[in-house]
Backbone:
């Protein structure tokens, strides 16, 4: 058994205490979960554990086979994959291991190949990452972590772009690493993942461990949720969500109509789809079904035939924060950047700092963004708060259709509810929202309508007024997916 012991870790950023005298003991053998609301200090803790950042004070020791050492290796799978898009999968895994490769070329290759097979990405080995979906990028990160033969493995929301099946495979893999004596840590906002992947979950709040849930009876989704919503935040959230009526679908103005639409790269064919005012439309389907690509086509982020011809204003938010956040700019600038000249300039046509400040002040309040001051760099915000900045900036545009891939990626459970409420109320003003979601509970909470894609075609359309609960929705989606698969085989 190995053990990682941190004592009295503190880390400040200006006035913010990201870690505030944190003590933690992490033991190998099982996967350990770390959960906490947005801004709790999870990513900071991961950066300190991995040595990416030095704590202001505190100590970190690994006890390996009974010997205490400060010299140990940590591998990280980041929330936003840190990969080289212009290199192949293979080359990505070679970076940083060139010496090792040269020393034992064949062995290194065989090992890499084994790991690629284990993660089912061996068929992509020679492809450049830029041509591959986010799910593969994440698995490349995981492969790299495994290749590094580290003592400690940190997984920061590693499966947010993976299907249920892929996630399950990943969790089994993590479990195997833990049993092989590695310290394995999973940071995630998904309660069901914490319960199914971990046997020990630590709750982090305001830079400190405030609770530990262990064993089947203590470690339940309800118990974690209760711990996470103990913040002052919740009072504002629950009221925001209450009493949203399901909009009736008929007679709503059609904002966008796709006719026999085909993805230019072949991800889907022959799609007829109306996007109606007043509707949150969710496109559902596993990776490869065409749902993600159809979302991108509606967001005008991806070409299709025939292309989109009508002129309704559309704003699109990509899945990866790398494509949505201007990381060299402040929070205020990120909030203003999607808006046109008419809103952000003075009568003389120069940039109006007053207008930007006003917008930023209002948006920080309206979208409950946790930030010291809006002039701070956007990268100083926690992941969930960056997502709120992007969403707020987009909602402020007042576009006819807002298209979002994975709207609550990396967002804590109370902020999720806020985001659903914001999207719904946006629709009530005669607009439409189109989402690609990977989690059925999310679809259930936010959608008026779910369109299921399977193998590049629309397999079914579900009006949420006919759905009674999450399992009912799971069942109906699965039925459509099976039917489509069957139709294609026969
Ligand atoms: N580089 C930085 N500069 C300034 N402040 C920072 C920086 N990194 C983190 N912080 C602040 O430290 C606090 C903890 O942030 P952290 O990113 O660790 O939270 P988190 O638990 O990972 O949140 P999330 O769930 O949203 O990802 C936040 O208030 C954040 O704004
Ligand atoms: Mg984080």
Residues:
């Amino acid at each position: 058994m190995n053990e990682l012991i941190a004592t009295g870790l503190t880390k400040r950023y200006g006035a913010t205490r990201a870690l505030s005298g944190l003590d933690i003991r992490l033991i190998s053998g099982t996967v350990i979960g770390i959960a906490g609301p947005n801004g709790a200090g999870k990513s900071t803790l991961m950066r300190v554990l991995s040595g990416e950042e030095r704590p202001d004070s505190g100590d970190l020791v690994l006890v390996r086979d009974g010997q205490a050492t400060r010299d140990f290796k940590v591998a990280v799978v980041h929330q936003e994959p840190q990969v080289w898009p212009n290199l192949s999968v293979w080359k990505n895994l070679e970076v940083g291991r060139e010496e090792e490769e040269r020393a034992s070329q064949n062995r290194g290759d065989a090992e890499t190949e084994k790991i690629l097979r284990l993660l089912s990405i061996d068929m992509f080995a020679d492809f450049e990452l830029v041509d591959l979906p986010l799910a593969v990028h994440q698995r490349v990160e995981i492969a790299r972590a495994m290749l590094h033969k580290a003592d400690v493995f940190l997984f920061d929301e590693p499966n947010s772009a993976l299907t249920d099946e892929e996630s399950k495979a990943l969790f089994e893999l993590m479990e195997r690493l833990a049993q092989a004596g590695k310290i394995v840590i999973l940071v995630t906002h998904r309660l069901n993942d914490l319960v199914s992947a971990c046997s020990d979950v630590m709750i982090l709040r305001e830079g400190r461990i405030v609770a530990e849930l262990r064993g089947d009876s203590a470690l339940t989704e309800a118990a974690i949720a209760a711990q996470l919503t103990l913040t002052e935040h919740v009072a504002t959230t629950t009221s925001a969500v209450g009493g949203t009526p399901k909009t009736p679908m008929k007679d709503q103005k059609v904002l966008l109509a796709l006719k026999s639409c085909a993805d230019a790269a072949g991800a889907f064919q022959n799609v007829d789809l109306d996007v109606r005012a007043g509707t949150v439309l969710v496109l559902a389907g596993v990776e490869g079904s065409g749902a993600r690509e159809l979302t991108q086509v509606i967001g005008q982020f991806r070409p299709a035939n025939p292309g989109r011809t009508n002129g309704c204003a559309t704003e699109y938010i990509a899945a990866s924060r790398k494509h949505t956040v201007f990381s060299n700019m402040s929070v205020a600038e990120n909030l203003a950047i999607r808006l046109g000249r008419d809103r952000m300039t003075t009568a003389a046509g120069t940039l109006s700092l007053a207008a930007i400040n006003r917008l930023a002040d209002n948006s920080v309040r309206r979208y409950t963004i946790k930030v010291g001051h809006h002039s701070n760099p956007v990268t100083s915000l926690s992941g969930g708060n960056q997502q709120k900045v992007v969403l707020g900036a987009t909602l402020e545009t007042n576009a006819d259709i807002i298209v979002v891939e994975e709207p609550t990626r990396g967002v804590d459970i109370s902020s999720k509810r806020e985001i659903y409420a914001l999207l719904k109320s946006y629709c009530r003003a005669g607009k439409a929202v189109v989402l690609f979601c990977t989690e059925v509970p999310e679809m259930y909470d936010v959608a008026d309508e779910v369109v299921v894609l399977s193998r590049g075609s629309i397999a079914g359309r579900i009006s949420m007024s006919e759905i009674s609960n999450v399992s009912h929705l799971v069942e109906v989606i699965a039925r459509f997916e099976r039917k489509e698969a069957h139709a294609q085989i026969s």
About this structure: The pocket of adenosine-5'-triphosphate (ligand 1) is lined by residues 13, 16, 18, 36, 38-44, 370, 380-385, 410, 412 (CB under 6 Å). The two ends are 53 Å apart (CA to CA). Residues 231-245 have pLDDT under 50 and may be disordered. The chain has three domains: 3-230, 232-313+399-490, 325-397.
